[in-house]
Amino acid sequence: MYKMNELSTEYKKKLVSADEAVKVIKSGDRVHYGLFNGLVFDLDRALAKRVGELKDVLVMTSIWSYPDPPQILVVDPESKHIKYLSTQFSALDRKANKKGNCWFVPVQFRENPKYWSENVGDINVAMFQVAPMDKYGNFNFGPQVADYQGILKKAKVVIVEVNEKQPIAHGYQNTINLSQIDYVVEGTNPDLPIIKAKTPSEVDKKIGSYIVEKIKSGSTLQLGVGGLPNYIGAMIAKSDINNLSVHSEMFVDAYLNLYKEGKITSNKNIDKGKMVYTFAQGSKELYEFIDDNPILCAAPVDYVNALEVIAANDQVVSINSCLQVDLFGQVNSESAGLQHIGGTGGQLDFVMGAFKSKGGQSFLCTPSRRKKKDGSIESLIKPRLAEGSIVSVPRSATHYVVTEYGAVNLKGKSTWERSELLISIAHPDYREQLIKEAERMGIWTNTSKISY
Fold first, then answer.
1. Model confidence, pTM
2. Rounded to whole angstroms, how far apart are CA atoms 91 and 69?
């Protein structure tokens, strides 16, 4: 740590251009780029200029959230010089993966800090975007704490890219001191990535209505992003449900809207008075709400997503989307067959944590069917998960499954009861075929068949 009267001098010593900073990266290095709103911008462009000089460099991130791909992939589309991996996957990561230049590392999000600090080789260089230094020599990470501490434990060289638009997020383990930093780059202050609110579909609205009728006052919410959580938030805002709390992996606009309507009191068992999250993405208004707001708490993912921490709150309501559910109750949220879609994230953490909480409920939501690229229609309630599909939530952990045809509770149900319940919320066009498949697989009996 520096003396306070030394901060200005030491800052100037470490201040360099982006082009100068990335000269520290050598062939064979492993480089971390940050994640979400903390992804480097100018440093990525500076490294892209050096691609031809380097070989066998590995760039790592948890997810890419800018609207444009990393410049290192643009200038090196065949990854001859720099390889790129992600532990979660955004839409851009997915596109890069299909082209063969983005590698996926399956990991539970809560385990990311330990993954970086103990289960990978060296992190030669870690680069993050941060808010400007305060008078105490600290740089705030903004609304993403996530796995940073695990990365910093392993990093040999730390470079920060200062962005004046980065909100000051209250929380803990959410800053880095000048004494821990090797180079400071004052960036071009790019806008933070904006997640535009999706308009809920009619299917979203039906699914949301089944969930909201089960939410009670005093619940602690975990919502994701998209049309469905936005609609659920809007429905709660208009309801008589109140005295709500937030303990969520992701902080999204739905919470902001609920707070505006006076629905959130944060009167929970732990972290009283705080809306707890590990990263945030959404609108410009959301980032303005986060900035220097003491009722919010950005915390490390191995705290936020820890099962015992989630379960310490009463009436946790976890709402997440999935891609397919089979008649055993196994849930796939990561792939369409062999095609990779997204990472595990914290879905399983909150499914299990919610059920462990007193009065908790977990909802996994999917439309009953979808149109494929070839124009054909497929049921998303399946006899068995498609070949290559990933089991994101095992059947023993699945609680509620919800489609536009209803919500069914699979906890404590036998295999034939599960198939019966899941067929009841499948699209009517597929129910008879699902019954035949259940019979063929030996999990359906004539005496258990019910009329719909």
1. 0.93
2. 10
Residue bearing tokens 């806008």 = 191
Which of 6, 111, 202, 249 is catalytic? The answer is: 249
| 159, two tokens | 């470079």
Domain count, the chain: 2
Amino acid at 38: G
Stretches in the chain below the pLDDT threshold 50: 448, 450-452
Residue carrying structure tokens 């998209």? 226
CA distance 261 to 311: 26
- Evaluated on CA atoms 164, 150, 22, 179, the torsion sign reads positive
Count CB atoms within 10 A of the CB of residue 393: 24
Same domain membership, residue 232 and residue 84: no
- How many CA within 13 A on the CB side of residue 201? 9
Q: What is the CA radius of gyration of the chain?
A: 23
Distance of CA 434 to the CA centre of its chain: 32
Handedness of CA 61, 67, 71, 73 (dihedral sign): positive
Query: What was the pLDDT predicted at 452?
Result: 40
Same domain, yes or no, for 259 and 295? yes
161 is catalytic: no
What is the per-residue pLDDT across 124-178, written as a single tens digit (0 to 9) for each?
A: 999 999 999 999 999 999 999 999 999 999 999 999 999 999 999 999 999 999 9
Range of the domain at 296: 202-448
Collapsing DSSP to helix, strand or coil, 297 comes out as: strand
